[in-house]
Design a protein that fits this description.
Strand content: 25-35%
Radius of gyration: 29 Å
Strand order of the largest sheet: 3-12-11-6-5-4
Number of helices: 1
CATH topology of the largest domain: Rieske Iron-sulfur Protein
Number of domains: 2
Order of helices and strands: EEHEEEEEEEEEE
Largest sheet: 6 strands, antiparallel
Number of strands: 12
CATH superfamily of the largest domain: Rieske [2Fe-2S] iron-sulphur domain
Helix content: 10-25%
């Protein structure tokens, strides 16, 4: 076979270890599939991994019932909610406006309808009562609320369970 090159497996022009274009593309494809599989596995583990206590999406201890008097409102940054002590009991209001998702702050000095203290959306002016009931603005419904339990005299708010509602009903508040 003089003048002809002999093809030997794993060689290019007789040089061992040299890669072919096809081999490089095949290896790249396998590496890409392995990375996608790894990403899916990590996502699966993170989704099912228990959340930290006290972080959004978990149960947050909001203090003792005795720490609150009727009319008190406290903001919990880590849980993204306001805890209000009403005459009917406690309600935990999710901070997002149901209109476009803006964060709705409690404005204790804001006067509307001869009353002081309202939740007021800075984006489009939706105004909510202390119970989260919409009283003015483009929002289609009241502020969403979170499940509350009273255990051993402590208020526990489940920030992972956000409930929508069409109107304020006294039974949405949890009595102490």
């Amino acid at each position: 076979m003089r003048g002809q090159e002999m093809a030997v497996a794993g060689t290019v022009n007789g040089v061992a270890g040299a890669e072919t274009r096809r081999g490089v593309l095949a290896a790249s494809g396998w590496m890409l599939m392995a990375l996608m599989g790894l990403q899916a596995a990590v996502g699966f583990v993170v989704y099912f991994w228990p959340r930290k206590t006290g972080a959004f999406g978990s149960v947050i201890s909001a203090g003792k019932v005795s720490d609150y008097k009727v009319g008190d409102i406290k903001y919990f940054v880590e849980g993204k909610f306001y805890l209000a002590r009403l005459e009917e009991g406690f309600i935990a209001l999710y901070q997002k406006c149901p209109h476009l998702g803006c964060v709705v702050p409690w404005q204790k000095d804001y006067v509307y309808q001869d009353k002081t203290g309202w939740f007021r959306c800075p984006c489009h002016g939706s105004t909510y009562s202390m119970q989260g009931q919409i009283v003015f603005g483009p929002a289609p419904r009241p502020l969403d609320y979170m499940k509350i339990q009273i255990k051993g005299g402590s208020v526990q708010v489940n920030s992972g369970l956000i409930m929508k509602r069409d109107e304020w009903v006294a039974s949405q508040a949890v009595s102490a």
